Amino acid sequence: MPPDDSVTKRTDEFSAVRTHLLAVAYRLTGSLADAEDAVQETWLRLAGLTETRREDIRDLRAWCTTVVGRVCLDRLRSAAARRERYVGTWLPEPIVGPLDTRATDDPMDVVVRDDAVRLAAMVVLDALPPRQRVAFVLHDAFDVPFEEIGEILSCSATAARQHASRARRTLAEADPPPRVDAGEQLELLERFTQAMLSGDIEAMVALLHPEARLVGDSNGKAKTVRRVVVGADKIARLLLGLLASYGPDFVRAARPVLVNGDPGLHLPAKSGDGRYRDLDEHVQTFAVRDGRIVALYDIVNPDKLTRVPR
What we know:
Blueprint: H1 5-29, H2 32-47, H3 51-55, H4 60-84, E1 96-97, H5 107-111, H6 119-126, H7 130-141, H8 146-153, H9 157-174, H10 182-197, H11 201-207, E2 208-217, E3 229-230, H12 232-246, H13 249-252, E4 255-259, E5 262-267, E6 282-289, E7 292-299
Parallel strand pairs: 2-7
Antiparallel strand pairs: 1-4, 2-3, 4-5, 5-6, 6-7
Helix pairs in contact: 1-2, 1-4, 2-4, 4-7, 4-8, 7-8, 7-9, 8-9, 10-11, 11-12
């Protein structure tokens, strides 16, 4: 049988907005799996409409954005209960790709070109209550009117506006580090790595912001810090201790990647031999403020590394 022209047209139209929907869903959930599931659910709802109801859709992008917002709100609410059982700190699932994402048209590589998807910003978003997060992201990032956001949140447009305003204040107070030039980040990363390999703790401390934070995410399934480590000296001494335990080869084996659009490292798993212990797979990235590293993110939960290109 020849293909149904209406189905083909509908599929093509949805494909044209799919990258946009992935961006919305990832900003809302911080999870690649949840984002893709939300986009798929949106497609199924669209495909399930009668021809008459589909013809009533004046703006497919807007309609799909509203639907994906509803789906993500449900997922955020269920995720809140899961987070209560999470071991240690929860970080967003990283989007890992080549250093130059301009060389690929992969939808997720396109998504991370947005400055707002950097890990430092996503971490702050994750601290917001679900309704505030949905209201803020949909309105401030994707220009969804408060009337439509109110329908998603089952509240008035005025209440939706208040949710977004509270989120905006929280983000302003948190003041996540801005994205800096990739070249500057790579140079800083190289200098820090060399200082670490040479055991120069003073040089390491000088490259770390006094209020630097090291955040690990493992859910108890791999080895990293359980609690946030704060302070340049504490972080430097911890990293040098790890270097002594695992040996310098694990640092040298790290390959540069982009993590949510910022330079980072992928450390492959390594079996220990001799005096060195086994090493779990790591994805690491960092944020910069005033020319120094202010945050280091170490993601080792294997459930969040299934999509890392190896």
